[in-house]
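FAQ: What does the model actually see?

It sees only this:
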Amino acid sequence: ATISEKFPTSKFTAVESHRGAVEDGKKSASDLTNLRFIRSDVLEFIRREASKTVSYDTVVLDPPRSGAAGKVIEQLIRLAPRNIIYVACDPVALARDLALLLAGGYQLGKLRSFDIFPHTHHFETVATLTRVT
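And it is asked to produce this:
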């Protein structure tokens, strides 16, 4: 089951800059009425949302191998979701971004790594963070 099926009364927004990925997402999730896709640069989207009075309970972040980068993390901290689920494939980029999130008021909950790229330094890792209030 998908996350939107597990929480049918919640609203989900998927943000992606690649046109083909958005089109594929819309097609594959056409039966999920609580999920919308937005084609946008993630940094621009988070900046727009942070300037509104919108609140987010949980953000799932799956950046490219290079990580989310300082400006995205900075704006994400400004957006102040209660929870962040960070999916990463490069431990160095993950460590850099986690350090920024921890300094920005988040606490690391769980960290799970999966060696799905054997004989490389890449591990698919899922980190859960909660905002400290």
